[in-house]
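Quick start: read one record
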Amino acid sequence: MPRLIVISNRVSAPADESDASIGGLAMALSAALREYSGIWFGWSGRTTAEFTGQLSLQRSAGVTIATVDLEEQDRQEYYNGYANRTLWPLFHYRIDLSAYERSFDKGYARVNARFADTVAPLLQADDLIWVHDYHLIPLAQELRRRGVANRIGFFLHIPWPTRRLFSTLPNHRDLVQALFDFDLVGFQTEDSLTAFCEYVTEEAGGVVSYDGVAQAFGRRVQLGAFPIGLDTAAFTQAAGSPVAEGWRERMHASLADRRLIIGVDRLDYSKGLEERFLAYEDFLANHPDALESVSLLQVATPSRDEVTTYQDIRAKLDAVSGRINGAYATADWVPIRYVNRTYRRDELAGMYRAAAVGLVTPLRDGMNLVAKEFVAAQAPDDPGVLVLSQFAGAAEQMPDALIVNPFSREDMSDAIQRALTMPRAERVRRWERLYDGVRENDVTAWRDRYVQALASLAEAPAESEQVEDRRATA
């Protein structure tokens, strides 16, 4: 059995799988790495005065972790710059927020080259290499230049934008060409896969076959949609834990018989939080009978505080929530409880179970696992209702949610009202179908589908022209 080498911007393998603060993705990848005796490689998150390429190796919960420190200039240009100020807003359809600076381009290329230099000596000839996310699109190209002929897969966790939108990126063609040095490129949804295929055929002059093989730039790559799942069993178990039950009771006590509407998001403009607050305000204005009978809890975990755009969104949400509370609050009730902090998985599970409505309304999202967490946490006999954006990748898999247009206040306001008044029998029917999908398409199924697809490419008869061509050009 070949080893699996996972490469990501940051390494988040758990120290202990019983730790409820660890995400399902980290647990699933760690399990795969234990099964395949692999290595998880990435940036340590630390900076150093001068890049040396020195590796830090450790074992954690049966997983070998390899990390490397970057320079402060790398962090600013590669991470805060090209990754989070160029690609992130562009891929989330916010070209108005994208910053195109040549120093960012150089930092992005430099760090991908440094990753390749550092990880290449760790590789064995039959290793399967799985690269994650938009930070590392050029990594396979850099590895090929260093003579690495292994099978290399790439998975994009965020959306891929439409052809016209992506074409606003300077040197967009070079970035797509770099993806053709991978053997397998996976997307979250059919929508993102279709957008990428359109670029290949319309901009790159390539072709895409019925079975998802794309040919362009003198190369070929297998494409596919691999929707990521939740660690459903663990989250459902967490929802029944004493910690979760304590938080559920705590929420009920604080609500004083009011019904809870909940949103849990990273603090990011892609999540549509301002639009959500304004839709909730519209709901309160149009349903005066709901005043003092409902409460919106919005948990917004801070992120990327060094990027000005994130500072701006936090200030804007403070202002909007404050204005709504000022207009509607009474002596013993506030319509919005807006919290900027991180909670453990079991704590969130208790909050979800206490809620009558879950609002997951991003303006654009690759998948959004909060939607699946909300479903997994519900009590089967009296579940809450999921209100889900049509622009979240999860909407392709979760049609039994109330699907809404997050740009329409009226659409979201109507969905909140429908969710709050939905009969129990309908809530149960919808939840059962949603939960079956979340359980069947969990994170382990996602991981296994992807790794098996990559392994099957390695086991297939050598489409040796391509392999030999790669070796010749490396």
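Residues 76 and 375 are 38 Å apart (CA to CA).
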